[in-house]
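anyone seen this seq b4? input:
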Amino acid sequence: MIESFRTLASVIAAHPNQQVVGRIRLQKTIRLLQRLGLPTDYLYTIHFYGPYSEDLHSEVTLLKNLNLADEESQQFSNSEAVQFTIKATESADPTLVKNYQPKIDIMAQAEPVILELAATYDYYRDQGSDHVTALEQLRQKKGSKCKAGNEDKALSLLTQLGLPSGT
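predicted toks r here
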């Protein structure tokens, strides 16, 4: 098995422009890919923005130290919000995850909130909740993010990925 940090670098390199815009997006993408069989074993717990892995966060730092990725931050004016962009270097090999490329492409096109809702719903399902209970937990956790058709879009995303999205 390939070391998880090399797999992580490969997933980043497989994205458009060899970059992932947002740490939250990276967390959710890896979580869903892991559910699809990506050979990593990051442990996830439920956090503010849904499933979160401290191990994954640490490995991004490792990627930077090994010159497999760079990370840039941008602070938005009139806000304390900071957005991070993780970009693979030329040393990262996207072909290591070529079997997952279609799924990566689907997730890369998803709006961040849809990916966040999909990963959170899937987390609850993976923890043993049935569809109805997982939706209730999702609504309780995410509140207004579930409005405006976002919940349906998240379930549709899971269907496209081949993950459970209903009864």
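The longest strand covers residues 69-75. The CA atoms of residues 78 and 94 lie 37 Å apart. kinda curious what u guys think
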